[in-house]
Amino acid sequence: MPPPQPTPKKAVPAPDYKTLKAQWEAAKRKKDAEDATKKAKEKQEQQQQPTAELNSDEIKLRELRRAALEGRRKKAYKSRWLWTAGFWVWMLAVHLVGIGYFTSGFLLTRLQLDDKSLCEVPPTAGEGDILPAWSGKGTVEGGCWYPKTFERAVVVLIDALRYDFTVPVDDNAAFHNAFTFMYETAVKEPNKAFLRPFIADPPTSTLQRLKGLTTGTLPTFIDVGSSFSGTAIEEDNLLMQMKEAGKRVVHLGDDTWDSLFPGYFEGNLSRPYDSFNVWDLHTVDNGVIEHIFPLMEKKGQWDLLIGHLLGVDHAGHRYGPDHPEMTKKLRQMDGFVRDLAEKIDDKTVLIVMGDHGMDSKGDHGGESDDEVQAALWMYSPKGIFGRTKPDFATPPATADIRPVNQIDLVPTVALMLGIPIPFNNLGRPIEEVFAGPRGNSWNNLAAAERVTAAGIKQYQASYYAARGMAEEAVSTPGSPADLWNKAEGLVSKGNWVAVYSAYAEYQKETLARCKSLWAQFNIRNMILGIAIMGFGVLTLLVYVSKGAEDDEAVDDPELDDAEKSLEIMGVIPDSELPAADVLERKLVAAAFLGAVPGLIGGALHAYLKGTDDYYRGAAMAALTSIATVGVSLYEIKETLVTLLPSTLWGWMAAVFTLSQSIGFASNSYTIWEDSILMFFSTTFGFVTALSALRIQSLPDRYMAIYHSVLFVVLGRLASSSKLCREEQMPYCTSTYYASSTSSTSALWQLAIPFAVSLILPTIIKAYLQPTRSYEGLAPAWIGYVFRTGLFMSALYWVLDAADNGDWIPNLPDKTLKNLSVYNAQMVLGLAFVAGTTAFMWAPPCVSIVTSASKATPTRAQVAILGYGNAHGARYLLLPLNFLVSLILLSKPMGGGALALLFWQILSLVEIVDLNSLSSTPIGPVMLAILGSFHFFKTGHQAVLSTIQWDSAFIPLFTVRYPWSPMAVALNTFAGQILATVCLPLLVLWKASPKQKGLLGDISRKLGVFVAYFAVESLATMAWAGHLRRHLMLYRVFMPRFATAAVVLIVVDLVGLLVGLAGVRVNTVAIGEVFGWAE
Ligand SMILES: [Zn+2]
Predict the structure, then answer these.
(1) Cα 204 to middle of ligand 1, angstroms
(2) Cβ neighbours for 405, distance < 8 A, ≥ 6 positions apart
(3) pTM
């Protein structure tokens, strides 16, 4: 493609407000004067009356009145805008309360108990013992509940160490066969070491895993969201027990530990490091390695030494597993563990483990096999580990064989170190540790299993008591109580093999019961949440259909003229000006009036009943508020009947939205959502192409067909960007990154942003030229500033690739990273700071040209270039600012997809205009579908692991609040955000300065747009609630609901803070020049 030449324009300096306004007014006065003279002449001719020449005083008076009127109209507009914004704030509040309520019903699972285990009081107290009394029994010195094996432990946590990274695999993948030491020792010296798969309970985030690995219990899902900042663990846990026993704990590495266990660690020896800088592969690891070896010489100063390394995890996030950096990292870990093992003495046990795995792109968070399968290795030169069967000698070849549950580490470590097992533990002892070197210490195994099981039983009793529930009767065969009694009955018989497996059976069954018990939901809260969302959607739909007729822009120039002259004469009083009687004002007032009794009633109910459920006040307020708003809408004679679609387009919008909602009931529909959205947009393109055939004007007809075809082609093109989710395999090939096991871009993909910077500004220009709107600030802004921003963000990805691939080996460390970050900051500064300023102050994209009229050369003719699209062309500058930033933050392939999205939106706007679809809901619905579609095309899926956390480090070196989460949000929801910012274009495109009712129209279009996302939230909510027992709940339905909920809030916020605010700025700017139409 040849580089586009900026069309040589006559050097017209961008006109500023004053000159533009002066030019416009001069031209207008001239026209008015001409008209007046003409009219006067006509009158004179008709009625033969004296000339009604206007004297100069009269003109002045009229000017003053006109100015006063303009002022009133401006004021009225601003107040109307505020009421509209108020309505949207209310809508946002309704959505927040609805989503919050539903989620609270869903996530409320496990009751946390405050009980702590005590060393002197084993749960088996008073019952016959399996082991003879050992010296120091019931003390930490000898072992509280079981004879102590080790004095000290070194726990090395290699974040995201997947099981297959540690065992031989017959392939050449970068992540295989690099970390061999642990496997080798387990094979060569089975008494000194063992290696087993270590299975995490989802969600597979480090924070959640650390809780499980120290308390021995299952996660409460409420914590997933707090992944960015953890809060202290208050439940009984290993570290608490260590501290209670007067032991010293030292921690090195990932600072998540610090937030979970504040004040637990020896301050002078511990070294926490920032955990979220996924860009940085080495700082944390080097810090741990540097500080751990000196500590190995100071064994008297600690009892538990924790080293948490993050390099493997970060290599996964940054590059994906199949990358040379991963090989390097795993080799480094291999050497590190090798060196560390040499320093371990007989009194110390070394535990190396992963907290979770990583998916094929190096991310985690969900519950796929790759994400939950970590590795566990224990080592002691003492040689005490055993195998109960000869086949167990070799570590399992895959993680499916003989896996250990991660919570099993808790009783194992507690019993090894002689401390009590934390009260809430549900895990069981790991066999190798207690089986004895020959693998036949069945009495030890039985004793360890029994004391653990007794702890679980005690916990169960407390839990049921705290919840006020009855335990299952002993008589039910297979119930935990039944299994427990059977096991107890076996103890006296002395068959330890049988005793061991009987208690193991009890533990297994209890764990399963707990899982299903905690998967119980607060149905009332869920229903309340769904009801709030449902009524919210209904209200929104009624609001949208309301006014569609009575606000129909009346474009009758004569009526307009008459009205205007009446106004100028001062005949129309202020109170009859628009805005005095705004629908939104009524609604906002109703919303507040309705909320108050609900709030008071809900809170009072909670108070009287003695429940602490004051949140119910919020829910009640939401419901009563929706009810009063509904009533006031009804009073304006709106009924639900008006909601039924009456046109083909209305039906199409409804079918697209509703079939989605029904589809979310099926996991395969949810998994293949991107293809379905593609199908919808293609269908729309074909239907509009057909419908274009009815357009009378030939050029318009051809343009409409052209844009429809273009719309489909662009969508097809965008669909070549794919990031597959695990469930789509093997029917899907990821193209978003260099390969399916990488999270860096392929070399050829780096060309995409450059192509975008070359082509996109030219395309935008082509959309502005037919309305002669490439005027004012547009040529400079689009042709130069916007293009420069795009070029710089393309450059960013080259610098990034050069840094990743170490293209210039002799550069000083971090040179490229510095360059790329500063470059990115400049792009964002250009877009958000300069761009917003420019948008605030830019005059309309019009030029006023005075030329001699052809017919009567003596009379000057005034033409305003761009008049017909004055609103749209100027507003367009705002989405462009967002587009540059979103392209920067979306990786090369995503940037390309976003450019296509923007192009598609421009065509959509043309299609809506040419086919006269602006009074139907199809425009906003299609825009919403486009936004959702490009969520997938920018490398995302509705699963936690596709969040591109590394995007936080595009403009920053370290985690900074609130910027880091904002960068991640802009990256994740780029498609929906761009679509939302573009929404006002559906109304403003080709709107001239004199068009009325734009604000109300935009607010209703926003209503349709938000309704699409609200229906999606409602549907995913309802299905997740209904399918709460479904096997795929946490894998498919729950993440889809979470995505829909967050998207809805994002769309609400962007629509209000960017869309409506931008429209206000835009209207004021147009009004200042051309006078107020509203
Ligand atoms: Zn991670």
Answers:
(1) 9
(2) 199, 201, 427, 428, 511
(3) 0.78
